[in-house]
Amino acid sequence: MNDISSDGYAHSEIETEGEFAGWAYWPGDPYERRSGPFYRKREKNGEQVCAFRAEPRHMNGAGFMHGGCLLTFADFALFAIASDELGEDNAVTMNLSGDFLGAVPPGALVEARGEVTRGGGKTIFVRGLVTGNGKPALSFTGIIRRLAAR
């Protein structure tokens, strides 16, 4: 695992095996590692893309992805999308809201993309879209609050 903090990802490591070899993840967040694991990378156009593979453990009783899993992934994506704004700073989620647009089946490639709609200060606003196999599953907006250094 290689540190890639020079690419704007504070304290990230690179996955070295499997489908997401070459993608970054945050090793210091055990909840996200257990929930996903969730990955991210910067595309050639500079956009951040986040992804994971839908497994049976991510599903609800109806056999589709649990809404809580989609929102947890959206929360992860907030910070990846805002990583250039955040730099090395720590931050917390102040608000996360989403609209469920479609079901995600087991085995789907789940991706999130988005944009910072306002940044530059202590409060960063983000919006994005989560897809399952390319079909819209969740639109989300979030507000991140930069924390003061301790």
Automatic annotation (TrEMBL):
GO terms for molecular function: fatty acyl-CoA hydrolase activity. The keyword Hydrolase applies. Residues 63-130 form the Thioesterase domain. Coiled coil: none annotated. InterPro entries: ACOT13, HotDog_dom_sf, Thioestr_dom. Keywords: Hydrolase. It comes from the Bacteria. The keyword Membrane does not apply. Belongs to the thioesterase PaaI family. This is Thioesterase. It comes from Erythrobacter litoralis.
